[in-house]
Amino acid sequence: MTTAPVADQHRLLEVQALDTRAQQLDHARRTHPLRAKVAEISERLDEAERAAAAARTVVGDTRRELTKAEADVEQVRSRAERDQARMQSGGSAKDVQALAGEVESLARRAEALEEIELEVMERLEAAEATLAAATESQDRLTAELASAERELASAVDVLDTEATQVAAERQQKAAGLDAGLMALYDRLRGQLGGLAVAALRGRTCEGCRLELNPSDVAHLTAAPPEQVVRCEECGRILIRGSAR
């Protein structure tokens, strides 16, 4: 049978209140709504970064394609210019006729290549617009994430400050309490989800909120004040006659 000074038993309720508040603060820190906001923005940012990377790849590939198309057009034009110059320099009628045919063929080829070049230029323009939009989205989300992270850090700092204050007050309240009482309290906290002690209000245990039967209440109230009593329903330490 555990016994402890009545004052220690009543002070244990204050320790419990502080431990409960510490649990609440820890839960609030771990589940703060801003954490979900940060995670959601971070996920969107990852998607935007992937989209921007894909867009950069398309732009790079299309630019290389345009460079090749421009080179193909330039090659055909240069050859046509050389053939035109040869035609103007004179020669046999047969050579001139052959060169004229080639120049005409090169003109058709240049026209076809220019159409390809134009089509590639249009695709490049569209790809660059897509990249610009993806980059803008990435930059915006980066700024949003930084802002949300600052908000979260500020909110956590407030909780941490209170948690530090609660821990210091708890240490002060628990100092000098009966060792056997504290050992029982710590063991029950681990078994009962953190709530190990509660006040008895009339016939009601404020831990489990159940009303005890009259015979149990009579047994509890008849026990010596120094005796540490437990709730018959939930097993928590009951503090009798508490003004809390």
In short:
Residues 15-192 form the CT398-like coiled coil hairpin domain. The chain has 244 residues and is mainly alpha-helical.
Topology readout:
Blueprint: H1 6-30, H2 33-88, H3 93-174, H4 179-191, E1 197-201, E2 204-205, H5 214-222, E3 229-230, E4 237-239
Parallel strand pairs: 1-4
Antiparallel strand pairs: 1-2, 3-4
Helix pairs in contact: 1-3, 2-3
Biased composition (Basic and acidic residues): 69-85
Domain C4-type zinc ribbon: 204-238
Pfam families: CT398_CC, Zn_ribbon_9
Order of helices and strands: HHHHEEHEE
Can you list the strand order of the major beta sheet? Answer: 2-1-4-3
What is the residue-averaged pLDDT? 90
Query: Low-confidence parts lasting 5 or more residues at pLDDT below 50?
Result: none
What is the number of independent domains?
A: 2
User: In percent terms, what proportion of residues is strand?
Assistant: under 5%
Q: How many beta-strand segments? A: 4
Could you tell me the CATH topology label of the largest domain: Helix Hairpins
Shape: rod-shaped
CATH architecture of the largest domain: Orthogonal Bundle
Main sheet attributes: strand count, strand direction, barrel closure = 4 strands, mixed
| Structural class assignment | mainly alpha
Q: Which radius of gyration do the C-alpha atoms yield?
A: 42 Å
End-to-end CA span: 25 Å
User: What's the number of helices?
Assistant: 5
Helix content: over 70%
Oligomeric description of these chains:
single chain
